[in-house]
Write a structure and sequence with these properties.
Elements lengths: L3 E6 L2 E6 L9 H16 L5 E6 L4 E3 L4 H5 L27 E5 L2 E3 L1 H7 L3 E5 L3 E3 L13 H8 L2 H10 L3 E2 H6 L5 E3 L4 H13 L3 H13 L5 H9 L4 H7 L2 H11 L6
Parallel strand pairs: 2-3, 3-5, 4-6, 5-7, 6-8, 7-10
Antiparallel strand pairs: 1-2, 8-9
């Protein structure tokens, strides 16, 4: 039985992690997730994805440690293409992914959320990194991304103490963009995704490309890379008729309401 379900709604790919009881991720599940995101990347009709977990208790409990302890899993860092969960090291995806966090996002589940571009959380959701107490390093995005998303001291507290970050605090700290009752989670995630899907696709991809690839550069270096044609999606977007028409519309005050 597949651990990952997908459904297409217009230009939106909905990806549901469905592996009872806790949506834990083994290597096979990570490969299924990666295949879903490759489909998003390569299908021109798909503009954006929503990633969520089945049920209301767990978004994902992270790495399937029971399978690893039983010898069913390779305990090396080779999680397959795209890294852990198929997304945490997928660095060529310039289409946005909205995380709809429906419950606990623990360990690798939190790291999977951090690999997404927008976070919408149910009001009962919690995110935490319990790895250190188990002698495991949170190296699938926790130690790399969290200090870039939150103030240093808060990020280090979460990394080193395993404190649970509730949905309301995640929003207050700027990590989650929206917190809603659980019954409204998918409606809100779809509202955001539908808006993105309705925008010119190359402009969306170029925006994510600049933000993603510019994260390790200074502002000056990012501008230089854009001017040098080092950002392919941006170069393609600048050459489209939609960009030229959009510039004219902005200059003429059209489409601003």
């Amino acid at each position: 039985m597949a651990a990952v379900r997908t459904e297409v709604r217009g230009g939106v790919l909905e990806v549901v992690l469905d592996r009872p009881k806790a949506n834990a991720i083994d290597r096979a599940t990570g490969i299924e997730l990666h295949e879903a995101f490759v489909r998003l990347r390569d299908d021109d009709d798909l503009r954006v994805a929503i990633l969520t977990g089945a049920g209301e208790r767990f978004f994902s409990a992270g790495w399937d440690l029971k399978a690893a302890a039983a010898g069913e899993e390779d305990t090396s860092t080779d999680f397959g293409p795209g890294g852990f969960a198929g997304l945490t090291e997928m660095f060529d995806l310039d289409k946005p992914v909205v995380a709809a966090v429906n419950g606990l996002a623990a360990g690798g589940g939190f790291e999977l959320v951090l690999a997404c571009d927008l976070i919408v959380a149910a009001d009962h959701a919690e995110l935490f990194l319990p790895e250190l107490s188990l002698g495991i390093v949170p190296d699938a995005g926790g130690a790399q991304r969290l200090p870039r998303r939150l103030p240093w001291f808060l990020a280090m507290e979460l990394l080193l103490t395993s404190r649970r970050l509730g949905a309301a605090e995640a929003q207050r700290r700027g990590l989650a963009c929206l917190v809603v009752p659980a019954a409204e989670l998918m409606d809100e995630a779809r509202r955001i995704a539908d808006h993105i899907a309705g925008c010119p696709p190359l402009a969306v991809q170029a925006t994510k490309e600049i933000a993603r690839r510019g994260e390790g550069l200074s502002v000056e270096e990012t501008f230089a890379a854009m001017a040098a044609g080092s950002f392919p999606a941006y170069s393609r977007a600048m050459a489209t008729p939609e960009f030229l028409e959009g510039a004219r519309a902005f200059a003429e005050g059209r489409g601003s309401e």
